[in-house]
Amino acid sequence: MADITIPSNLLPADGRFGCGPSKVRTEQIEFLASLNPSVIGTSHRQSAVKDLVKSVQDGLAELFRIPEGYEVLLGNGGATAFWDSAVHSLIENRSQHLTFGEFGAKFGAAAKAPFLEAPDIIAAEPGTRSEVQPHEGIDVYAWPHNETSTGVMAPVKRVQADAGALTVIDATSAAGGIDFDASQADVYYFSPQKNFGSDGGIWFALFSPAALERVEKIEASGRYIPDFLKLSNAVSNSRLNQTLNTPALGTIAMLDEQVRWMNNQGGLAWASNRTKQSSDILYTWAENCPVATPFVANPDHRSQVVVTIDFDTVDASAISKALRANGIVDTEPYRKLGRNQLRIATFTAIDPADVEKLTHAIDFVLEQIG
Fold first, then answer.
1. Which of 267, 334, 329, 338 is nearest to 303 (CA)?
2. Number of neighbours of residue 317 by Cβ within 10 angstroms
3. Residue 263: what are its φ and ψ, rounded to 5°?
4. Per-domain boundaries in the chain
5. pTM (predicted TM-score)
6. Does domain 26-264 sit in CATH 3.40.640.10?
7. Phi, psi values for residue 289, rounded to 5°
8. What CATH number was assigned to the domain covering residues 16-24+267-369?
9. Residues 140-186: pLDDT tens digits?
């Protein structure tokens, strides 16, 4: 295929549409640079770093409008580390997992621990989502708020089940981009490299009083839990505005600036309206394009922050290669899904005007490749 040059008037001002790591705003990098040498390269047990961590915790509490008694926790490692921590410190006997993509399935697999009953896995075909099925003996109900691999979104709603059962939500690609009621979850956890435009190596979570009590109960039971995975350690350290081991300060600094920006713009409601505006542009475009269609058929299940679009008769990889050659990057599909599609992030930092330009750029490429 001959090289395709997209006219400059059709190009987005910023061509980063990756689903993770995601677009980082210039202001975040500038804020990070401003912390050198007052914070970068200093002890994470001293006030300069702890003040930065507290700023993030307070900003997230404001952004998510957390109810009284909830706490903002943080710990070393990303969501993968949190899954193992949850298996050891949150699941008392048995969990139920909704899996409608790669990441929900990974938590379900992690719950197949020898000291727990086999998890109840309720799987859905890619592009659809499964639903909670409450029943006796389940003490944790878990699912993703947004499935990054497929572009399927699910509501955050507390499960009405056995007394004491916890609702645990994986929010990595949803947090900071989709509005919700924090009181409807006992644990809402995420890594900050999506809507928050930060890096990996750390997790944050909103914990309800019931979830904090569960951590204490399991800790007191005598169950063996490696120190790194003990959520009791995360609780005690978070209350001191620190992590068990040295945290990734660049990640925290970029998150701090992003949360401050979101709150100043109008908070989570503003961010959610922005991502919905961007994703609506793409879904409307796909519905009107003769060779494209939204991968997620049910509009109520379509993500606001990760848009997946299937193509007929046209090689989607040719589109993404042409886009990349013109500075529009990371529109390739999730590698394990194996579909002829584009996957486009509409995270909060991404300007809806750039999303509109992207559709024009894709139209141009389609004209060129026939």
1. 334
2. 14
3. -65, -40
4. 16-24+267-369, 26-264
5. 0.96
6. yes
7. -90, 130
8. 3.90.1150.10
9. 999 999 999 999 999 999 998 878 999 999 999 999 999 999 999 99
